[in-house]
Amino acid sequence: MSEDFTARRAYNAAELVDANVARGLADKVAFIDPERTLTYGALQADTCRFARGLAALGLDQETRSITQ
Amino acid sequence: MPIPLNTLLTPEQYGYILEDSRVEAIVVSPALVKSVAPIISKLTRLRVAIVPGPYPGRLGALETHSFAEVLAQGTPEVFTAETVSDEVAFWLYSSGSTGAPKGVKHVHASLIATAKLYGEGVLGIQTNDVVYSAAKLFFAYGLGNAMTFPMAVGATAVLLPDRPTPDGVIDLMRRHRPTIFYGVPTLYAALLAHNDIGPGAGSDRLRRCVSAGEALPEHLGKRWKDVVGVDILDGIGSTEMLHIFLSNRPDDVRYGTTGKPVPGYDARIVGEDGRELPAGEVGELIVRGPSAGEGYWNQRAKSQRTFVGEWTWTGDKYIRDADGYYQCCGRTDDMFKVSGIWVSPFEVEAALVAHEAVLEAAVIARTDADGLLKPKAFVVLKSGHRADERLFDALKEHVKARAGPWKYPRWIDVRGELPKTATGKIQRFKLREEDAAAK
Q1: ipTM here
Q2: Which of B183, B293, B305, B331 is least enclosed by beta carbons within 10 angstroms?
Q3: Interface test with B, best of A15, A36, A65 (most B CBs within 10 A)
Q4: Average pLDDT, stretch B225-242?
């Protein structure tokens, strides 16, 4: 295996969202549930909104939160 | 730091995890508010609740917001927090097939490692795939299946909030026509027993099926291939390793085995002293790879026993054959000796479910009148079969012929259903407790 996944580097797992928009897939559907469909572009915008919204509530990096 | 939680837990279990993790905020579906409401007042660190849908009213003393309101407070310009690949990104609580759940800490780089090694390397997932995972996103298995793998290649995931009943799954397969389906053995068995099962299980585009959670019995894989026309790739992963590290491959399927190590992972079978065992000997499976957790939260002794340097101890008993295929023998805690020979409950169960009358089976050790351990079977029968002595005798003979004469169940208990975790793993420890209490 040529790729070393454990090499220490600047990296955020949010890349999983951003890389799709960067390669031109903003309009492609990422998720479908019974209520709606969400494109990669909308997912990126909403995750950024949500992150800023959490920060406004005093919930920053390192704060633990539960989703269920 | 998000911690996705199983939506089927009891208020007591939520209380344990919320206290153990010391969460400050909770994002909770309206349907689950009633499960957490009774325990909120006992949690001193919990400060904020966020609920999708209309504003639900204040939850206890918590600062409560609707999801839409939190979104509206933010702006959509792209920004990413500066983090390092090695730092913890999220936790997953182990489902606790035995004992209290443990929080496994996972780092940022682990998700993409599972997608590259298993998602792309074994499954061959591509941008135009549409995936459906019956295992939900809060499980390590479901998280990789329906979030990491599709997102790593820009594919699409179909999500179903309901419990995946055979009717619901077949309906979804017809409607969304997924190309990749991920299930667990009990669901594959239930689907095969469904009247409408046929090619593609309802999807004319189905090209890959995956099974994990517990070992897939050989006959189930073969029947699925016959009826549905697509192989099931059986693999084993864990909450600690984040996803599958040992698996069959599309071009190399051997039913009744878990296949071989996923390239990028190393596996060994070791004795109690930690020394590697030769092929043909049963020992504990240990694994090394880039997606191992950083450790358990606030569980030093358990972390040291499980995350040993680069190697993670799985707690699963395995045997490797001469061709290098790994075969599951059950959890370390589930194995027992009969007449001095190790018996894997899985082996006896696989023999039982290969009988036409049996839908599901679980095997435990029970002490006989002489104080010796012997197998006891709990079975769920298929409809149309009667539980009588003739059937019991037939099942015993069936196991003797298939698994070995000393392995047949001395007692057979017919049940309407078996206790399972939310992932569909049979909870043998519950049957052991019940059995011990009944004596």
Answers
A1: 0.94
A2: B305
A3: A65
A4: 97
Which tens digit of pLDDT belongs to each residue from A2-36? 578 989 999 999 999 999 999 999 999 999 999 99
Using CB atoms, pick whichever of A25, A52, A68 lies closest to residue B7: A68
- Comparing CA positions, the residue from B97, B163, B189 lying closest to residue B380 is B189
Task: Look at chain A and report how many structural domains it folds into.
Answer: 1
Interchain proximity B158–A10, CB inside 8 Å: no
Map out the domains of chain B as residue ranges: 11-79, 107-330, 335-438
Fold of B335-438: GMP Synthetase; Chain A, domain 3 (3.30.300)
pLDDT digits (tens, 9 = 90+) for B276-334: 999 999 999 999 999 999 999 999 999 999 999 999 999 999 999 999 999 998 877 78
> Is there a contact between A48 and B29 if contact means CB atoms under 8 Å apart?
no
* Full DSSP string of B91-136: EEE---SSSS--EEEEEHHHHHHHIIIIIIIII---TT-EEEESS-
* Chain B contacts in chain A segment 20-59 (CB below 8 A): 20-21, 23, 25, 28-34, 40, 44-46, 48-59
pTM of the model: 0.86
Q: In chain A, what residues touch B81 (CB-CB under 8 Å)?
A: 12, 14, 51, 61
Q: Is B422 on the interface with A (CB under 8 A)?
A: no
> For residue B404, what are its two tokens?
């070995």
Residues 2-21 of A with CB under 8 A from B: 3-18, 20-21
- How many CA atoms are closer than 13 Å to the CA of A2, on its beta-carbon side? 0
Q: Sign of dihedral through CA atoms A36, A37, A41, A47?
A: positive
Rounded CA separation A54/B74 (Å): 8
Q: Which CATH number fits domain B107-330: 3.40.50.720, 3.40.640.10, 3.30.465.10, 3.40.50.12780?
A: 3.40.50.12780
Among the partner residues A16, A44, A66, nearest to B112 by beta-carbon distance: A16
Conformational region of residue A35, where left means phi above 0, alpha means psi within -120 to 50, and beta covers everything else: alpha
* Residue B356 amino acid letter: E
Closest Cα in chain A, distance from residue B234 (Å): 22
